[in-house]
Amino acid sequence: MGVVRIGQTEVVYELRRSAAASERRITVTPGLVEVLALTTDDDAKIDNFLNRKRQWLFNALRELETATAKRAVVPRFMTGSKIPYRGRMARLTVRRHDGPHIDISYQNGFLVDLPSWVREKDQDGVVAAEIKLWLKRRVRRDVIAFARTYQRRFALKPRTIRVADMKTGWGACGPTGSILINWRLVFAPKAVMEYVVAHELAHLSIRSHGAEFWALMATLMPDYARSKNWLDRNQSSLDAEVFTSKQPVDKAT
């Protein structure tokens, strides 16, 4: 644990060192500020980095407070509720039927056919769990499709690619070429999800975020800047409390 003072406020952070990291980074999430340092960094280098990022950290914490107050909340999973999906709020319709299974479909909104054996008092929890599972499966399908496209066009082949519930970040490319994608990207427009997949695939060739990396990104996805800017502006609002209370808000490098 460490402490950085911003005006009269003391911000407690967790320090993590990584041999795989090529640059220092600060990640701000609800209840946690994490500082990623290089294994070669001494205390003076870390303090200097934090001093340079003091204003950024102050702004990120204030933005988090605002976003937490405004982020999407689904109070009830019933007909008329709104579910965040692909950058907008989609209407939910719940119907009862006599079949044995729970069926979910999407066409201009979510339609959940709920068996009559599901008790009324259990409806919210059952529908929430089933929609979350549906969303995760949709993300996996999309991520695999994007990865195959870039592998075919640019010969960028990860060792593995997996969708998971990440505590921090939207994606990661491990030192062995394994890629991890945050399932909550299902709440962003599809092009934003594609950007994150392309971003992590680009790290198979270039590990840092220098000019060479962004030149490669421009080759992979010429309009990547539009999706990157959308994510920078909206990432703090991508979470619905009913699914999770932890949401990455921003990073500084």
From TrEMBL:
| Residue ranges constituting the YgjP-like metallopeptidase domain according to the UniProt record | 25-234
Q: Which Pfam families match?
A: YgjP-like
Q: Quote the CDD domains the UniProt record gives.
A: M48_yhfN_like
Highest taxon of source: Bacteria
InterPro entries recorded for this chain?
Answer: UTP_pyrophosphatase-like (IPR053136), YgjP-like_metallopeptidase (IPR002725)
Gene3D superfamilies from the entry?
Metalloproteases ('zincins'), catalytic domain (3.30.2010.10)
This chain belongs to which protein, by name? YgjP-like metallopeptidase domain-containing protein
Q: Which organism is it from?
A: Methylobacterium gossipiicola
